[in-house]
Design goal:
The chain is α/β, with parallel strands linked by helices. The protein is built from 4 helices and 6 strands. It has a single domain, classed as Double Stranded RNA Binding Domain. The strands form 2 sheets. Strands 2-4-5-6 form a 4-stranded mixed β-sheet, with helices on one face. The longest helix is centred in the C-terminal third of the chain and has 30 residues. It is elongated, with a radius of gyration of 24 Å. This is ABC-type transport auxiliary lipoprotein component domain-containing protein. Keywords: Signal.
Length: 199
């Protein structure tokens, strides 16, 4: 093939690739999940501690680390946004927020076979998310005087052929829904069990 013709073909291929890539929708931008619109819990403690027992494996079937806003980060945001230490340094009491679980697992769904399956968009994967936390008031001797625990779970299935952008939206909504449920539970428990330490 003449050199000139090869050059023209190369230019055409580059132009085609560029036009294809420009047609692809841009990746969506997801806002971090915060709780600043809600009033903080003002606690008569000297400090807020945020700990985590949950360690991502970064291995299948766990996929929480791939989320636009991983549940663990949303839980940390909740603690920073909704817990406020107003007791001063002399109280000796600590509010400890512990993340016990913040996992999401992926599982493949069984596929139907036969003629019906050809004309049906089937559900391909299911995602099961679970979060669990403890909120404790620890006295100067290291004993928990008040404890609130809460957990939330949500599952979503996605169809075959889903795009990466669509999957990210499903994952983002899962984190949002998990946190909304958890926030409602913690609100009730703090209101009922923490009055001696609420200001």
């Amino acid at each position: 093939m003449p050199i000139r013709l090869r050059q023209l073909l190369a230019v055409a291929l580059v132009a085609t690739a560029a036009s294809c890539s420009s047609d692809a929708p841009p990746p969506p931008r997801f806002a971090d999940i915060h709780f600043l619109a809600l009033p903080p819990f003002k606690l008569n403690v000297s400090q807020i501690q945020v700990d985590s027992r949950f360690q991502p494996t970064f291995k299948e079937p766990n996929v929480e680390h791939e989320f636009p806003v991983p549940p663990q980060r949303a839980l940390e945001n909740w603690a920073h946004d909704r817990l406020l230490a107003v007791g001063g340094p002399t109280t000796g009491y600590v509010a400890r927020f512990t993340i016990v679980d913040a996992s999401v697992r992926e599982s493949e769904l069984p596929k139907k076979e036969g003629l019906t399956a050809v004309f049906t968009t089937q559900q391909a994967e299911r995602y099961d998310g679970h979060v669990s936390v403890l909120l404790q008031i620890i006295n100067p001797q290291g004993v928990a005087e008040r404890t609130a625990s809460a957990e939330a779970a949500v599952s979503r299935s996605v169809p075959e052929g889903i795009t990466l952008n669509e999957r990210d939206k499903v994952w983002y909504d899962m984190t949002r829904d998990l946190m909304a449920d958890l926030d409602r539970q913690l609100q009730k428990q703090v209101d009922s069990a923490f009055p001696p330490f609420r200001l």
